[in-house]
Amino acid sequence: MPLPLALPSWPFAGLALTAAYFGVMQAALVSFQWATVVYIFLLTAQLLEWHYRHLPGAMLMAILIGLGLQFAFTNLIFLGLP
Predict the structure, then answer these.
(1) Which of 5, 21, 40, 57 is least enclosed by beta carbons within 10 angstroms?
(2) Angle 32-47/55-71 helices, nearest 10 degrees?
(3) Helix, strand or coil for residue 27?
């Protein structure tokens, strides 16, 4: 069986998205919780191949994770976040 000529784009998109997330966090352009919500949503949607049926669940999960991590890091672990 021949190898495909083009590699799937989702691993590279995920890597680029992660690099952008780290860049935004390093430059402190957006607060941690909202940058995390956007990052988790975009990464999840990319991994689910942008099926419209899964997008509401991806958004709900991203909001819960972003806000939950903000709460856990600031109220339970006492870390200073940007």
Answers:
(1) 5
(2) 150
(3) helix
The DSSP 8-state label assigned to residue 81 in this structure reads -
Evaluate whether residue 13 is within a structural domain: no
Q: Is residue 61 part of a domain?
A: yes
Domain with 72 in it: 30-76
Contact 66/34 with Cβ under 8 angstroms? yes
The domain total for the chain is: 1
Residue 77 exposure: Cα atoms within 13 Å on the Cβ side? 9
| Cα–Cα dist 79/69, whole Å | 11
Query: What are 55-72's pLDDT values in tens digits?
Result: 999 999 999 999 999 988
Polymer length of the chain: 82
Measured CA to CA in angstroms, residue 66 lies from 40, 61, 75 at distances of 8, 8, 14
Please give the structure tokens belonging to residue 77. Answer: 């672990």
